[in-house]
Amino acid sequence: MRDVQPAQRGEVTIRDLSKSFSINGRNLSVLRSLNLDIGSGESLAIVGASGSGKTTLLRILAGLEEADSGGVLIDGQPIDGVGTERAVIFQEPRLLPWLSVLGNVAFPLEMRGMPKIEARRLAKRYIQLVGLAEFSEALPAQLSGGMAQRVGIARALAVQPEILLLDEPFGALDAMTKITMQEELARIWREENVTMILVTHDLEEAVYLAGRVLVLPKEKGGRIRDIRIDLLRPRNRSESRFVKFRQELLAEFGLH
Ligand SMILES: Nc1ncnc2c1ncn2[C@@H]1O[C@H](COP(=O)(O)OP(=O)(O)O)[C@@H](O)[C@H]1O
Ligand SMILES: [Mg+2]
Q1: Is the CB of 59 under 6 A from ligand 1?
Q2: Torsion-angle region of residue 16: left (phi > 0), alpha (psi -120 to 50) or beta?
């Protein structure tokens, strides 16, 4: 466990972060001198065209990818690879098919040396939080896509991270399930008091979930926009200011 003041738990600082890839001998600059401060308990969405570097940024934050220069600090300390204070949720939950829902959520806890009984007790609490108490004993193959993603969320939260990193978490779900999951994630974020960084191409999802939306530029060297979404929660998608924010984001992409 990291020894930090509760008031600054989950604070993310990005300083002069740059990343490029080399493709067929050509240098592709993806992130250029990015600076960003994300407060403890904040909910930030990152949007941008396909290929604008959203996943790259999230992978660097997760410690799965190294920056070329600059870096990321969490609660004032530079990160070095993956860490227990961060949990990542991808589009596919990648559950272990031979383990039950309970087994899947308890697994990372047991891997960290938590006694089995305690791991299962904690896992049950998070399975309840995502509304799957009745499916604790089900196998992944018996779950719908939305249910499987809920298990993934429970598994990520059970390790009690300070920071939740999500990359297009609902991208594979149908429209109705997606809305339900967004509502649940909004509730969970409030209840768990976790810093949330969400990559999405869904602008409505960004306005629904985030307190701030970062728009990555399409053309390299373009400027990054940082838009504050000061709507009350729970949010109403048909309210006029919600619609306005959505339009404002669409306009960032030259759309209406
Ligand atoms: N491992 C890699 N090797 C080479 N190029 C990569 C790699 N990962 C990403 N890229 C390139 O970096 C750019 C940004 O990718 P990515 O971060 O996945 O964008 P996004 O998630 O916004 O769609 C893309 O042009 C992609 O081709
Ligand atoms: Mg991506």
Answers
A1: no
A2: left
Mean pLDDT across 134-159: 96
Cβ 55 under 6 angstroms from ligand 1: yes
Of all protein residues, the one whose alpha carbon is nearest to atom 13 of ligand 1 is: 51
For the cut 90, the answer to whether the pLDDT of residue 13 exceeds it is yes
- Fill in the DSSP letter of residue 224: P
**E strands, the chain, in order:** 12-23, 26-38, 43-47, 69-74, 77-78, 86-89, 163-167, 195-199, 212-215, 225-228
Helix (H, G, I), strand (E, B) or coil at 196: strand
pLDDT above 90 for 94: yes
Mean pLDDT of 195-215: 97
Confidence of residue 209 (pLDDT cuts 50, 70, 90): very high
Is the shortest distance between the CB of 30 and ligand 1 below 6 Å? yes
pLDDT-based confidence at residue 223 (cuts at 50, 70, 90): confident
Q: Atom of ligand 1 at shortest distance to CA of 48?
A: 22
Is the pTM above the cut of 0.70? yes
Q: Whose CA is nearest to atom 17 of ligand 1?
A: 53
In angstroms, the CA 14 to CA 186 distance is: 24
What's the CA-to-centroid distance between 18 and ligand 1, angstroms?
13
